Amino acid sequence: MDLIEAIRTRKTIRAFKPDPVPQSVLREILDEARNSPSWGNTQPWEFAVVSGSQLEEIKKGYLEKGDSESAMEAGEPPDKPEPYLSRGRHQGQKEHELLGITHDDEKGRAWWRSQNFSNYGAPCVIYLLTERAYHFHNKGINVWPVYDCGVISQTIMLLATNYGLGTVVQASAVRHPDIIRKVIGIPKSKVILIGIAIGYPDWTARITAFRSDKEPLDTLVKWYGFT
Q1: Among residues 128, 160, 208, 111, which one has the least CA distance to residue 7?
Q2: Lowest mean pLDDT: which of 19-33, 77-91, 108-122?
Q3: What's CA 151's distance to the chain center, in Å?
Q4: DSSP alpha helices (H): ranges in the chain?
Q5: pLDDT band for position 77 (50/70/90)?
Q6: Distance between CA 166 and CA 162 in Å, rounded?
Q7: Crossing angle for the helix pair 106-117 and 52-65, nearest 10 degrees?
Q8: What's the confidence (pLDDT) of residue 227?
Q9: Which structural domains are found in the chain, ordered by start?
Q10: Could you tell me which residues are beta bridge partners of residue 168?
Q11: What is the mean pLDDT of residues 178-195?
Q12: What is the model's pTM?
């Protein structure tokens, strides 16, 4: 697939078929993704790729905890300032409208949250990890491993598109790291940064037709030194 086509085609998928993703395909994706750049070639990423019964156990734990307080390790803002708050609300409203979930439909909203906690039915999740001692140190927080893991996340998602796979990057997937650690034995020395749910998109689901709005280029860019 052409790179420009992959960038334009890739989008967040929130409904997956149950079909398993072959380990060989996942290996190829991650092997190619290793070519992503990182600060000083530090390559601060590690991956825990989970499927099958162990992923089902993680999902079960998440559904049991539900909306309980997040213990996300990489940190999350307590409040979003504008314009980020409005963008997030607009996104949620559009999803609910597409699904026919009204403002007072508590049952529908609870169902949609449960889909989030179960990775939208994805048969596999790639958890990105980084070394705790590199991320947190006595002078504060080193942001570069998080930045670098963001770079390789995009590479993984573009490669997945080339294989006919869909992805969704989920902060909620690492909301309860204790559950993940218990099921697959990730040591405390690793920070669980983010989860990428991956699988074959269910194109029959209404939500799969959804595409997020993007800000116009001219609202994001200022040009200097051009005539």
Answers
A1: 160
A2: 77-91
A3: 13
A4: 3-9, 23-33, 52-65, 84-99, 106-117, 132-135, 144-162, 177-184
A5: low
A6: 10
A7: 140
A8: 87
A9: 3-75+82-219 (3.40.109.10)
A10: 197
A11: 97
A12: 0.95
